[in-house]
Every structure is written in structure tokens, then in C-alpha cells.
Specification:
- This protein has about 500 residues and is mostly helical.
- It is built from 17 helices and 10 strands.
- It has helices spanning about 10-50, 55-90, 90-125, 130-160, 180-185, 185-215, 220-255, 260-265, 290-295, 305-310, 320-345, 350-360, 380-410, 415, 425-455, 465-470, 475-505, and strands spanning about 165-170, 175, 270-275, 275-280, 285, 300, 310, 320, 460, 465.
- The strands form 5 sheets. The protein has a two-stranded antiparallel sheet with strand order 1-2. A two-stranded antiparallel sheet has the order 3-6.
- α1 (about 10-50) packs across α6 and α7 (about 220-255) packs across α8.
- The termini are far apart.
Length: about 500
């Protein structure tokens, strides 16, 4: 690899590579959150069976486990393709940071994936072959394995958003890991993991409530439906409130390490202290953005123009303008080329040390050296602005929804809800619950749009822009596979939905 890093790659190759990865990631995330959410529900149901030995709870757990299994298989297929795309479409990225990025993905495959694959077999085929306690442990360990798998994948993604625990080696032209713990336990990774997994529980809870409401509307499986709603509503409300709290924590992390993303989320061009949070364009909650970003109602929040032109941070330090970062990035690239040339020609240690000092002083802005126009570092503002509002707005709706479901189910307060029975509501009430399923997915996918569009144009924040990270592959080839994947993923989704609907229509299999 040279310091040019394939800068002459055709623009269509870059766009198609990004489109293909986005397509795969979006489809993959249709399966993952339901897997994580159903894992909690079926674990609770089997725990109830273990404690009571009531066969109703075993049958209920087995029913939700069947739906879990269908979704689990589809998620594996799309996830494998997603990881392969790093090598096929993003080979420069893989070369540049493979020593770091590959570690959490390897652990995910070796530890988490094998863990969940092993215990999922016991969960499905071990009901009469292992003890109830071991089977219960297997069910929870299947869910735990899926969650650990999500942890390592989110660690890898968080590192792309906030690269830590690494150092650039000018001799190998690669970033190399210097602290595994810094990578694995990055505060940004912890915040991302908590918010993402908790939001996945919401989807699982909404799904279970929706299926149960369909049964109630059809006057079928009444006990399974009501008991499942009670469990799912509690999980859903706790998760919805948890998502709000972890979302606030994540916003503070973003404000510290990705201020441009936060500015794009708010369409904030000119920042300052005491910033309001926009509900819609022109309507703001006073001081709310400052509090969300800094825990201080008077906190300073930079806008897009402030970041482009440079600004003074709250601690008094100056953040350079993007133009200055571009110049310093070019200095790092030039010094790197000079160092490699000098070393090849047998330069003295003093000369090499001088070049290394220039590299180290400017390496923080290395990625900016490939930016031609400072406006290229501004992500798509309106995509981030509206995706963020859709996510937050639907999150508030879910808090209300689960609170109402719990109130009606437990008839609290009795004076107001005594006449309501969850099993005899008008059909439109059940349809509301069913229609919330696609809204839950829209909210979840919107969160990922903010996470990924918000860091554009960076593959790795401030370190590697997309046009440097992509493989030197013809755009036509990537476009061809894009449409092939679009067809296959859509077919897989249709197959899954068809199987799920058939299983739901069939209902649970009760045993004596």
C-alpha cells in the first residue's frame, strides 16, 4: 500500500460499496433486535415453568422459542455476508485497521457465536434429555450468547466512531492495537451497547404484545396471550425508559467525540451556550440541547459552522478549523511518504526521527489530508435531523403504549379501569398494538441511520474517509451484487414473515 491509498478509485465504486453495505446492515438489523428481545421473553416464560412446573408455562416458552428460532437463523445468514463485505468492498479499511477491528469480530465468532449455537441446540432438542435446570440455563445462555455477540460487534462499530487503544505504525502503514482493554471497554462502546440492546428488547416486547393481541382479537389462546402481554409490557416499559436514559448518555458521548454528528442531528449551524432542542424546524425546547449534550442548561454546543471554522471548547482549549486540520493532515501524509523514502534509502536515525516527529504531531488529523473541501466533512443534515426525531418520537410513544397496556392489564387505577378487560376490548385496540410492530422497526433503523450517516464521510472518525477505505473494484461489479443481495434479502425476509405467520396461526402445541 502506498500513501496514495488508491485515491483514483471511481466514484461509482465508492457509492455502490456504501449502498451495498447499508443494504446488508439494514436487512441484518431487521432480524437481530427481535432475536435479542424474544430471548428475554422466552427466558422469563421458562423461568416461570421452572419455578411452578405448570406445563402452561413450558408450552408458552416453547411457542416463543419457535418464533425465536426462525428469526435467529435468518440473522446468522445476513450477518455472515456483512462481515465478508469488509474484505470484498472495504479492503483498504481492512488492511489499515485489521489488527484492531478484526479482534472483536474474531472473538464474536469464536466465543459468542459458538456459545449461542451450542446452547440453542440444547434449548430446542433437550427438553426430555437434560434436567429442567440445565435446560433453563441453556435458554438463558442462548440469549446471553446472542447479547455477547452483539457486544463485540458494537465494540467494533464503536471503535470506528471513536478510535482508541491504537497507534499508527509508519513501517507497516497500519494502525495497531496497543491496549485491548481500551478498545473493548471504551465508554463509547458501553453506551452504544446499552442503548442498542435495550432498544432491541422494545422490539421483542412490541412483537409479543402484537401476536398476543391478534390471538385476543380472534378469541384464541386467551391465557397465553394475557400472560405474555403481562410479561412483555413490563419488559417493554422498563426497556423504553432504559432506552431514554441510555440515549441521553449516548448523546453526551457523541457531543464529546463527534460534535459534527450532534450538530447535524439538530441542524444546528451556529452554536453557543443555552441551546434549545428542536422539536421541528422553528420550534425548540429552551436550554434542552445544552442539557442533553453537557448536563448543563447553559452548556456550550458547537454548530456546523463553528466546527468548520474552529471554536473554543468549554475547557478553554481551541479546536482547530477544518481547513487547518486538512493542512496538518497533508503534513502527516507528506512526512509519512518522506519517512518511508528516507528509510528505504538508508537515512540516518536523526533524519528518520525528525520525520517521525512530524508524523506523530499531525497524525491526529491524518484522515483530513484526503479531504479536498471542508464542506465534505458535513454529514447529510436533514437525514440525521429527521431520523433522530423519528427515533425519539416513537420512543416516547412506546413508553406511553406499554404504560397503558400495563394499566389496563392490571386494572390500575381500579376506579378508572375496572370496566376494562384486556381480553374483551374492541378490535381497533388490538390493531393499534399490531401496527406498532413496523413502527418499532422504523424507530430502531432510524437510530442506526443517525449513528452511521452522522459520522459521514468517515469510515473511521477523523482517520479514514470512505473514498480511501474502499476496495479498487469496478462499480458495475458492486452494483450487480447489490441487486443480487437486494433480491435475496427481500426473499429471505418474505420467507421469514411467511413462516412466522404460519407458526402464529398454528399457535402453541399444548401438552398434558
Amino acid at each position: 500500500m502506498t500513501t496514495d491509498l488508491f485515491l483514483n478509485i471511481d466514484a461509482s465504486s465508492i457509492n455502490w460499496a456504501r449502498a451495498q453495505f447499508a443494504l446488508t446492515a439494514i436487512y441484518h438489523w431487521l432480524f437481530v433486535p427481535l432475536t435479542l428481545g424474544l430471548a428475554v421473553i422466552m427466558g422469563i416464560c421458562e423461568t416461570c415453568w421452572y419455578r411452578t412446573r405448570d406445563t402452561f408455562w413450558r408450552d408458552t416458552a416453547q411457542f416463543w422459542q419457535k418464533l425465536f428460532g426462525v428469526n435467529f437463523a435468518m440473522g446468522i445468514a445476513t450477518g455472515i455476508i456483512l462481515e465478508f463485505e469488509f474484505g470484498t468492498n472495504w479492503s483498504n479499511y481492512s488492511w489499515f485497521v485489521g489488527d484492531i477491528f478484526g479482534a472483536p469480530l474474531a472473538i464474536e465468532g469464536i466465543v459468542a457465536f459458538f456459545m449461542e449455537s451450542t446452547f440453542v441446540a440444547v434449548m430446542y432438542f433437550g427438553w426430555k434429555k437434560v434436567s429442567p435446570g440445565f435446560h433453563l440455563a441453556s435458554t438463558w445462555l442462548t440469549g446471553l450468547g446472542a447479547t455477547i455477540s452483539a457486544w463485540w460487534i458494537l465494540v467494533a462499530n464503536a471503535w470506528m466512531q471513536y478510535p482508541v487503544g491504537c497507534a499508527f505504525n509508519p513501517d507497516t502503514m497500519r494502525n495497531e492495537m496497543v491496549s485491548f482493554l481500551d478498545v473493548a471497554l471504551s465508554p463509547f462502546a458501553i453506551d452504544k451497547f446499552c442503548h442498542t440492546v435495550i432498544s432491541a428488547w422494545i422490539i421483542g416486547a412490541v412483537f409479543v404484545v402484537a401476536v398476543s393481541c391478534w390471538y385476543l382479537m380472534k378469541n384464541r389462546e386467551t391465557k397465553l396471550a394475557t400472560e405474555s402481554i403481562k410479561i412483555a409490557a413490563i419488559v417493554g416499559l422498563v426497556a423504553s425508559l432504559g432506552a431514554a436514559m441510555t440515549g441521553h448518555k449516548s448523546a453526551q458521548s457523541v457531543s464529546r467525540v463527534q460534535p459534527m454528528k450532534l450538530a447535524a442531528m439538530e441542524a444546528l449551524y451556529d452554536g453557543g451556550p443555552e441551546q434549545g432542542l428542536a422539536i421541528i424546524p422553528g420550534v425548540k425546547v429552551p436550554y434542552a440541547l445544552s442539557f442533553m449534550a453537557t448536563n448543563d442548561f447553559a452548556g456550550y454546543v458547537p454548530g456546523i459552522n463553528d466546527i468548520l471554522n474552529g471554536y473554543a471548547k468549554s475547557d478553554g482549549t481551541l479546536e482547530p478549523s477544518v481547513d487547518e486540520k486538512i493542512q496538518r493532515g497533508k503534513q502527516a501524509i507528506t512526512a509519512l511518504a518522506d519517512y518511508r523514502k528516507a528509510k528505504k534509502e538508508g537515512a540516518s536515525a536523526a533524519e528518520l526521527k525528525a520525520q517521525l516527529s512530524v508524523i506523530n504531531a499531525n497524525m491526529k488529523y491524518f484522515g483530513y489530508g484526503y479531504v479536498k473541501d471542508k464542506n465534505d466533512v458535513v454529514p447529510p443534515v436533514w437525514v440525521n435531523f429527521w431520523a433522530f426525531r423519528i427515533m425519539v418520537g416513537l420512543g416516547c410513544l412506546f413508553i406511553l403504549f406499554f404504560a397503558v397496556i400495563l394499566a389496563v392489564t392490571y386494572k390500575f387505577p381500579k376506579a378508572l379501569l375496572q370496566k376494562y378487560d384486556i381480553t374483551t376490548l374492541p378490535d381497533w385496540h388490538y390493531w393499534v398494538a399490531i401496527l406498532l410492530v413496523p413502527l418499532a422497526y422504523i424507530a430502531s433503523e432510524s437510530g442506526w441511520l443517525v449513528a452511521e450517516f452522522g459520522r459521514q464521510p468517515w469510515t473511521i472518525q477523523d482517520m479514514l474517509p470512505t473514498w480511501v477505505a474502499v476496495s479498487d473494484v469496478e462499480g458495475f461489479s458492486v452494483a450487480l451484487t447489490f441487486f443480487l443481495f437486494l433480491f435475496l434479502f427481500t426473499l429471505m425476509l418474505c420467507v421469514e414473515i411467511n413462516i412466522l405467520l404460519k407458526q402464529i396461526k398454528k399457535g402453541p402445541e399444548y401438552t398434558n
